[in-house]
Amino acid sequence: MALNLQSILETLTAHSITEHPFLSLYLNWHPDGNGRRQETMQALTQELDMIAERVKERDHGLDSFNADRERIMTYVDTEAPPDATTLAIFACNADDVWMTLPLQVPVENQIVEDRYPHVFNLARMIDDYETYAVVLADAQESRILVISLNAAEQVAETEAAEEIKHFQSGGPDQMIFQRRTDNLIKAHTKDIGQELARIIKRYDVQHVIVAGNDSTKGIVLENLPDQIKEKLVDYVKLDIQSNLQSIMEVIDPMMRDVEHKQEADDVAQMEGEVARNGLGVAGVSDTAMALSKGQVMTLIMHQNFNAVGGECPNCGTIRAGLRDKCPYDGAELQQADLRELFTTRAVQQGSAIQVVEASEYLDQHEGVGALLRYRDDVATNPPA
User: Fold this and answer.
1) Where in the sequence of the chain do the CATH 3.30.960.10 domains occur?
2) pLDDT confidence of 378, banded at 50, 70, 90?
3) For residue 327, which phi and psi values (nearest 5 degrees)?
4) Which of 99, 134, 249, 305 has its CA 20 to 30 A from that of 23?
């Protein structure tokens, strides 16, 4: 739970473009039925062989690449955690870069050599696997788990000040006993809320799911602080002693639904802003220009977005397509993978990144667009 992927992403995107080989690897580290990773290891070896041939044709960089290759193979052979689902590795020996990230998020193999780190996959993980707090509570006790990047950890537990007992006889004694029981539960719920507020702040929790039985649902939800209710996804029926697998089976579809709704909402907002010529753009050229000007509040990309363009090494202008010269200062444009360049520029500008699994609107607009902080070409239309 100590891994701060957003901070790592910011560190990587702050790295200057290098003339040396910069390796970005995303490896599917989940073993096959025989407990081996033969397919991944074959892909790794073959891709590194092809990169080596390309680097040999240049007049520099081979020593740095060979050092990185040796270190990578040592890591995957002897050091990589066997319980990881994915390994992300970033390496450039000449620039003293070496970073390994064992993760629980599934990913397809990708092995890239470029002048800069390829970080789209990291940005997508942050978007798709937001941090959740799951509270399993009954009248007597609670367990609080944090789920981040598909990995779960119990981080706290609470218990009522006294044992909650059941009183069977009726009359005034029953009423007095029930009031006392209700007060104990309310006090315990307050303790849960305070502990949860601390956890939300510490772990930057975006969403909360509360699980328990029907008998305590009303009093638990009623006594949660408003700032926690704002993050509440749902209350689900689940035994407080449920194991991790059972918990994940119940809440994983809920987390996916939340993400898909966020994707749909962002695309719908962008479509509306584009239609009224407001704070939105769609298509590669307009998005490239908005990123060049620092206008982007939220970059929205289809998961399969793919485009080639150029970046001016002097003024930083991004241009769609294969062009020779920057239109502003005449410098020679450096060819770039626009999915990676858009992602890097968005992180550098503090923009949010939304990666969308499916969208007809994005399909019709080259797979990319953005919500803007401001426009400088036309006056922004006021809301209807």
Assistant:
1) 5-127
2) low
3) -70, -10
4) 305
**Which are the contacts of 182, defined by CB distance < 8 A and separation ≥ 6?**
219
Nearest alpha-carbon partner for 144 in 210, 53, 226, 52: 210
Is the confidence at residue 383, as pLDDT, over 60?
Answer: no
What percentage of the chain carries pLDDT values higher than 90?
75
Mean pLDDT of 249-255: 94
Q: What would the CATH number be for the domain defined by 132-242?
A: 3.30.420.60
Domain over 5-127 is classified CATH 3.30.960.10: yes
pTM attached to this predicted model: 0.89
Looking at 15-19, 65-69, 97-101, 300-304, which range is the least confident one?
Answer: 15-19
Neighbouring-strand partners of residue 90: 24, 99
- Sheet of strand 22-28: strand arrangement: 97-103, 86-92, 22-28, 110-114
Delimiting residues of CATH 3.30.420.60 domain(s) in the chain: 132-242
pLDDT tens per residue, range 175-200: 665 676 677 778 888 888 899 999 99
On the 0-12 / 13-18 / 19+ scale of CB atoms within 10 A, 2 is exposed
Q: At what angle do helices 214-222 and 171-203 cross, to 10 degrees?
A: 60
| Rounded Cα distance, 256 and 357, in Å | 11
Q: Looking at the predicted structure, is the pLDDT value of residue 302 above 70? A: yes
- Could you tell me if 119 and 225 are in contact, meaning their C-beta atoms sit under 8 angstroms apart? no
* Token pair 């007992």 in the structure block, residue: 165
The number of C-alpha atoms within 13 Å of 174 and in the hemisphere containing its C-beta is: 5
For residue 34, what pLDDT is reported?
Answer: 84
- Residue 173's pLDDT band (cuts 50, 70, 90): low
With respect to CATH, is domain 262-372 assigned 3.30.1330.30? yes
Q: What stretches of 16-138 adopt beta strand conformation (E)?
A: 22-28, 86-92, 97-103, 110-114, 132-137
Spell out the residues 6+ positions from residue 368 whose beta carbon is closer than 8 angstroms to its own: 282, 283, 284, 287, 299, 300, 301, 302, 305, 307, 342, 362
DSSP 184-235: HHHHHHHHHHHHHHHHHHHHT--EEEEEE-HHHHHHHHHTS-HHHHTTEEEE
Start and end residues for every CATH 3.30.1330.30 domain found in the chain: 262-372
